[in-house]
Amino acid sequence: MTDHRLIEITHATHGVDIDLVYATARNLTGKPIYRAAHCLLLEPAEVALRRAVELARQIGTTLRIFDAYRPPQAQQVLWDFLPDPTYVADLKRGSNHSRGTALDLTLLDAHGEELDMGTGFDAMTIESEHFHPGLRADVQRNRMLLLGVMHGAGFTHIKSEWWHYELPGSHALPLIDNNASGPLRLM
């Protein structure tokens, strides 16, 4: 993973649904973080996403992306709002979103409805853990479907967020400054 080129992800080019919540007030801060958002991934993550899209299609689902590349400045906004390393990457370590190798997403059924994952995106609670005990069977099955699609495409997950996936070894990469992101702008 040495290429640091960010690739734009769109519905037309990748067959995904895009709902970048940080460009809206529908996120944990309650206010937009991006003024104008574009869904971007580092080239190796974009290649893995294409595999994930195909795997999702094979089970009759579509990926909905909530966030991908996140400039370090946006990570600072999230950290300032919720300085809890369980849910927001510590700025000293840096977020893999800011490396362009992580994305937050869910699955849509054939009718374009989100599969029930038990909590909403950005629900920073223990119930958001991938394998939280006590989840209904259908919720756990939906999380396992997403997990299988993303692992099959080469991504890995983190324990605390059912929606977060990243390329293994991402922490070895440098953070990508907002200036490199072109169209992504912060509020």
UniProtKB/TrEMBL annotation:
InterPro entries: A_A_dipeptidase (IPR000755), Zn_M74/Hedgehog-like (IPR009045). SUPFAM superfamilies: Hedgehog/DD-peptidase (SSF55166). Its EC number is 3.4.13.22. GO terms for biological process: cell wall organization; proteolysis. The keyword Nuclease does not apply. Binds 1 zinc ion per subunit. It catalyses: D-alanyl-D-alanine + H2O = 2 D-alanine. The active site is at E161 (proton donor/acceptor). It is an enzyme of class 3 (hydrolase). One of its GO terms (molecular function) is zinc ion binding. Its cofactor is Zn(2+). Pfam families: Peptidase_M15 (PF01427). Keywords: Cell wall biogenesis/degradation, Dipeptidase, Hydrolase, Metal-binding, Metalloprotease, Protease, Zinc. Zn(2+) binds at H97, D104, H164. The record marks R70 as: Transition state stabilizer. NCBIfam families: PRK10178.1. Belongs to the peptidase M15D family. Catalyzes hydrolysis of the D-alanyl-D-alanine dipeptide. This is D-alanyl-D-alanine dipeptidase. It comes from Paraburkholderia xenovorans (strain LB400). The gene is ddpX.
